[in-house]
Amino acid sequence: MTASESIERAAEILRSAERVTVLTGAGISAESGLATFRDKEEGLWSKYDPMELAHIDAFHRDPELVTRWYHWRFTKARDCEPNAGHDALAQLQAWLREQKGELTLITQNVDGLHQRAGAKGVIEIHGTILTWRCLDTGAHYELDDIDFSSFPPRSEAGGLLRPNVVWFGEMLPPDALFAAEQAVSACDVFMSIGTSAAVWPAAGFIDVARANGAATMEVNLDPTPITASVDVSLLGKCGDVLPLLLEAAKG
Ligand code: BV8
């Protein structure tokens, strides 16, 4: 299939969809200027592997390094803007709702950009970088309420503060995982967008959707382990492909 035939095929599937479930990864935030996990971070962090730093063991081993990394990441997330890919997904969700359908957006990203683009009911299965919590009291803090003059930051109770993200080696938040599994099991279309489809349990969502009869699609810059098995593969940048798909679906 040519690229435009693939877009039309995907649009045709979306036009007849009632329940669409989308899983996004770091690739959809790349055009906002946020490095993905598999691209090398630029500058100071180029010598660290994100897959190593985003681990509960790394935090216990070196809380200063890990909290500096997350401070650096959230300042970039706060200073950047949602891109055309985030905007198109939020508009697709609104359009499907007008057609009496629904789109559930599950994200592995912790940057909050889907919400800033207007997406509703976003399921953050790997948490968020935009709030932190005290290991001693469990109290949650907004970024502006945290003293980052020293690392690792501490609460006024003196406890260590950590970001509310899910690290490798940690369980996913039960409520988010349950909501995601519900959406994956009940959808008639499953879209994997901007993710290398390599991190579990999110990487298994497409298998559950397919087993329940959903049509499957992928939007990604590069091929991934699921590219060969989806019904429609759209290779390209989210910021280019998703607006085209939205326009084609709306006819
Ligand atoms: C758990 C938050 C129970 C923090 C993250 C089963 C089998 C094997 C291993 C496991 C398994 N079950 C559990 C595991 C262990 C582990 C895991 O999956 N390991 C992997 C590496 C094999 N999983 C866990 O630990 C999970 N917990 O299951 O609890 C348990 C516990 C212990 C042991 C067993 C069970 C917790 C996982 C969550 C970790 N937290 N993030 C933070 O953000 O700092 S993961 C983090 O990495 C992201 O959230 C994301 O999930 C992942 C990176 O993936 P992507 O988002 O896809 O990003 P990536 O860079 O890889 O790819 C980007 C893609 O975009 C590329 O394909 C690229 O081509 C494309 N792209 C780039 N630019 C664009 C683009 N596409 C379109 N347009 C563009 N412009």
Give a summary of the structure in a few sentences.
This protein has 251 residues and is an alpha/beta fold. The chain has helices at 3-15, 50-53, 56-61, 63-79, 84-98, 113-116, 174-186, 205-211, 238-250, and strands spanning 19-24, 102-107, 123-124, 127-134, 140-142, 161-165, 189-193, 215-220, 232-235.
What this model shows, in words?
- With 251 residues, the chain is of the alpha/beta class.
- It has two domains: 3-34 and 82-126 and 172-250, 3-Layer(aba) Sandwich (Rossmann fold); 43-79 and 132-165.
- The protein has nine helices and nine strands.
- The protein has helices at 3-15, 50-53, 56-61, 63-79, 84-98, 113-116, 174-186, 205-211, 238-250, and strands at 19-24, 102-107, 123-124, 127-134, 140-142, 161-165, 189-193, 215-220, 232-235.
- Strands 3-2-1-7-8-9 form a six-stranded parallel beta sheet, sandwiched between helices. Strands 5-4-6 form a three-stranded antiparallel beta sheet, covered by helices on one side.
- A hairpin with a 5-residue loop joins β4 and β5 (140-142).
- The protein is elongated, with a radius of gyration of 19 Å.
- Ligand BV8 binds next to loops.
The number of distinct helices, counting runs of at least 4 residues, comes to 9
Main pleated sheet: 6 strands, parallel
Q: Ends: how far apart?
A: 20 Å
Task: Output the helix-strand order.
Answer: HEHHHHEHEEEEHEHEEH
What is the share of helical residues? 25-40%
- The CATH architecture assignment of the largest domain turns out to be 3-Layer(aba) Sandwich
- Low-pLDDT segments: none
Bound molecule types: ligand BV8
CATH superfamily of the largest domain: TPP-binding domain
Estimated share of beta-strand residues: 15-25%
Under CATH at level 1, the class of the largest domain stands as Alpha Beta
Query: Based on helices, strands and strand pairing, what is the structural class?
Result: alpha/beta
Topology, number of strands? 9
Shape field = elongated
